[in-house]
Amino acid sequence: MFSNACCRLWCSARLVAMFSIACVAVAARAATPTELQKATTLISEQHYQEALALLQPLAATSAADGQFNYLLGRAALGSKQPELALMSLKKSLELNPD
Would the pTM count as exceeding 0.90? Predict the structure, then answer.
């Protein structure tokens, strides 16, 4: 039989693994319309850092979305991150040239 310490260690490791999987699942999703609306509102209220904090975790899975890149660029510009702003706004124009 396993000792109590061994069982606790195994349970702890299992919980960490389950939490890690849950975090990856959450992080690996695209921005929802609600999140894009929230970012739009934050930007219009000049809460650029909050908008950036909302959008940045979704950047890897929303890279093909022109509206997302536009909002990310605006939030980055307002947060004084010109390199990210330029890259995001260029990508937005590539995706939506009109």
Answer: no
Q: Which amino acid is at 47?
A: H
Token pair recorded at residue 85: 């702003």
Q: How far is CA 71 from CA 16, 25, 79, in A?
A: 34, 23, 12
Note whether 54 and 42 are within 8 A (CB).
Answer: yes
Quickly count: other Cβ atoms within 10 Å of residue 26's Cβ. 9
Give burial (CB, 10 Å; 0-12/13-18/19+) of 32: exposed
Rounded CA-CA distance 48/44 in Å is 9
- Tokens 């739009």 sit at which residue? 40
Answer yes or no: is pLDDT of 54 > 60: yes
